[in-house]
Amino acid sequence: MKKVLILFVMSLFFALAAGILAQSTNPWSAGANGVEKNIFLPTEAVYLSSYTVCFGQPNFNVYIINYKNLSNGDKLEDVRGMAQNITTNSQGFIQLTQIWNNLSAGDYNIVLDCNNNQMYDNEPIDAANAVGFSVQSIASGKVELGASNPSGIQLAYNPENIQKEATIMQILISGENEDIVLQNMNLKATGTGSKDDIEKIAVYIDSNNNGKKDADELLVGTGVFSGDTATLAINHTLKKSKGIVLGIEYRMKNFITDKTYSFTLDAIIGLDNNSKTIVNFSGLSLQSAVLTIGQPLTCVGATTISLSPTIGFINALINTKISGLTNCTGRVAVIKLNSCDDINEMCRCEINNSECSCTFTAPGTAGSYAVAGCVDKSRNTKYTEAGESAEAVVVLQKKEIANKTIVSNVTNNNPVTNTTLTPTGFAISSNNIITILSIGMVLIFIFLIIILIMIIKMAKKK
Fold first, then answer.
1. Residues 126 and 157 in one domain
2. Do the beta carbons of residue 107 and residue 65 sit within 8 Å?
């Protein structure tokens, strides 16, 4: 019985010794609290701890190396630039010691160079043929003005087309290393106008990069000013290594003439989608364009254009009349071929209350021509708003032309005219037909009188 007991005690002793020896060969990475840790963020620090190591050698160098499968005789190269000297306690333990801060993302091993020969000699390592610990990458973000960032915007009250929104900043935002969950934007109001004149601030994805919000573009954030600042809640995940273009627009509540409105974008906050750490974006702050409120628009109505003649000859004079407008005195009507976007200006006139006229020389080539009347009612140097343009058609021909019917279609409620042309090129109008019929009737009447006189003479002879 005593032999059995002795054997049991000896077995237990050797088992405990084996366990201690096994642990003595493995240092481990830890956090500041001493708990073993194998995954770190770049903002954290790596600590080292162990049980008994490097038997009989209380002082040695600790290397942190890029992970690889080590072989005896491999040279040890420390990622920190140089190894760190460590002294164990009386038991041969490494007490909790900080060995690295300002970490770089990657996979690493910790090696104890017990004989201090700067080579691996099957010495203690935190994980043989495996990664000892890893440092995760942290997302980084960057902001810059977009390619279609506006330079200056004017907005005015227009009773015919009430437009309250104006994009005053476009930004390109990008992220690296990890996806970033956007949280908010911080704006500070600038300009001479009151913040109470701004109804809402909106952030949208400018998917076609044109610097304005289109109907199908996604809204990702809104907010309002509280005093001079606004925090806009943003709901979008920015994919790593992929940029996105965002537009920021004001929606106006009040139109105060000559007041200006703008802002500075001071911060964009996001969360690293992996580590959940806060990501601050570089490139800030940025200044928006300036929105200026112009004079209210009083020139209203729909531009109409009429031509005389609508069917004529090449190189002839064409009279043009612009009408249909109210309170537009002083505006200039420009007459162009094809459309208001064309560079070919034929003539112009200044509107007096509601209309004006001018004359131009028709082109020298026969054919059908669109003639556009263009009035910049809003005074924004464009003809894109409602009622600022109209078109009519003039048909030109040479002096000699075969009999045919020419149909002239004129926009803006001008009637469709069907005119038959003679071989000589003169139009037979309704007035000409009446004249010809009258002459014919006179000739027939004279012919009948002659016949009557002849009948009377023949009767007398009998």
1. no
2. no
What CATH number is given to the structural domain containing 333?
Answer: 2.60.40.1930
Tokens describing residue 152:
């200056």
What are residue 264's DSSP bridge partners?
Answer: 188, 287
Place of tokens 């002659």: 450
For residue range 137-186, list pLDDT tens digits in order: 888 899 999 999 999 898 887 777 777 899 999 999 999 888 999 999 99
Q: Supply the pTM of this predicted model.
A: 0.57
Domain-embedded: residue 437: no
* 3-state DSSP helix/strand/coil % of the chain, to nearest 5: 15, 45, 45
Judgement on whether residues 277 and 355 belong to the same structural domain of the protein: no
Q: Indicate if the pLDDT at residue 424 is higher than 50.
A: no
222 and 338 in a common domain: no
* Dmax (CA) of the chain: 187
Query: Alpha helices, DSSP H only, in 140-283?
Result: none
Same domain, 119 and 17: yes
Phi, psi of 433 (to 5 degrees): -65, -45
Same domain (yes/no): 49, 111: yes
From residue 200, how far is each of 184, 224, 316 by CA, in Å?
15, 5, 56
Is residue 91 one of the residues assigned to a domain?
A: yes
Residue 354 CB-half CA count within 13 A? 7
**DSSP run (H or E) holding 286:** strand 286-287
Same domain, 102 and 240: no
- pLDDT tens, residue by residue, 236-270: 999 988 899 999 999 999 988 899 999 999 999 99
Question: Nearest CA to 55 among 25, 99, 19, 26?
Answer: 25
Instruction: Assess whether 150 and 94 both reside in one domain.
Output: no
Is position 169 within any domain?
yes
Q: Evaluate whether 100 touches 126 at the Cβ level (below 8 Å).
A: no
Q: List Cβ neighbours of 126 (8 Å cut-off, separation of 6 or more).
A: 26, 27, 28, 29, 109, 110, 111, 132, 133
Q: What single-letter amino acid sits at 183? A: Q
Give me the residues paired with residue 161 across strands. Answer: none
* Burial tier of 416 (Cβ tally within 10 Å: 0-12, 13-18, 19+): exposed
Rounded CA separation 236/222 (Å): 12
Q: How many domains does the structure of the chain reveal?
A: 3
Domain of 337, in residue numbers: 300-421
Residue with tokens 């009035």: 375
Is the distance from CB of 325 to CB of 283 less than 8 angstroms? no
- The CA-CA-CA angle for residues 50, 53, 55, to 5°, reads 160
